[in-house]
Automatic annotation (TrEMBL):
InterPro entries listed in its UniProt record: DUF1731, NAD(P)-bd_dom_sf
SUPFAM superfamilies in the cross-refs: NAD(P)-binding Rossmann-fold domains
Protein name: Short chain dehydrogenase/reductase family 39U member 1
Source taxon at top rank: Eukaryota
């Protein structure tokens, strides 16, 4: 990242402004809800430990003044090869032991790792992009729909739910909230900036990940 002397931005075209891009978690920033829909302008970041942590991350990454173009990408659950969320899910699903977590009704904001990298690259290269971008896919899914789609991609059943009490016992109350409660997050501003998703649909994303 380069720097500018104070007051010099107006003499330079936007494409030459320095930039800073950072990434946080959309699933932690926005308050869990079965009905609300959140975009980049929705309030959040102040209701529990993880949401406050995201707020502190974003504040720490923010530079003072307006001489630097700054972008924050709030990502959903990242789907990719060789680890991450899918790495923990594949074995039980391959064995036919997978299923929804808790009620399964909670939303599951997700994104393919190629699109997360693409949004970060887009934010760096497109001089008109600034502020918050939701790094989630444009097609939303509940946890139950995610389980069904993953099982279909693997050709396995997915009818064994993981009870909430077990999740809380394994992960602890604070971390279990991340799995048992979700929110419907939309990438309204991300789409408005012109980013084109490689994997906008969950089925295609999961098939590519497990291939």
């Amino acid at each position: 990242m380069s720097s500018l002397l104070p007051g010099c931005r107006a003499a330079m075209p936007p494409s030459t402004w320095p930039e800073r891009t950072s990434s946080t978690l959309s699933e932690a920033y926005y308050q869990p809800s079965l009905t609300a829909e959140y975009d980049e302008d929705s309030p959040g970041g102040d209701f529990d430990f993880f949401s406050n942590l995201v707020t502190k991350w974003e504040a720490a990454a923010r530079l003072p003044g307006d001489s630097t173009r700054q972008v924050v990408v709030r990502s959903g659950v990242v789907l990719g090869h060789g680890g991450g969320a899918i790495g923990h899910m594949l074995l039980p699903f391959r064995l036919g032991l997978g299923g929804p977590i808790g009620s399964g009704q909670q939303f599951f904001p997700w994104i393919h790792i190629r699109d997360l990298a693409g949004i970060l690259t887009h934010a760096l290269e497109a001089s008109h992009v600034h502020g918050v971008l939701n790094g989630v896919a444009p097609s939303s899914a509940t946890n139950a729909e995610f389980a069904q789609t993953l099982s279909a991609a693997l050709g396995r059943p997915a009818f064994i739910p993981l009870p909430s009490t077990v999740v809380q016992g394994v992960f602890g109350r604070e971390r279990a909230i991340m799995l048992l409660e979700g929110q419907k997050v939309t990438p309204r501003r991300t789409l408005a900036t012109g980013y084109q998703y490689s994997f906008p649909e969950l089925g295609a994303a999961l098939k590519e990940v497990i291939a």
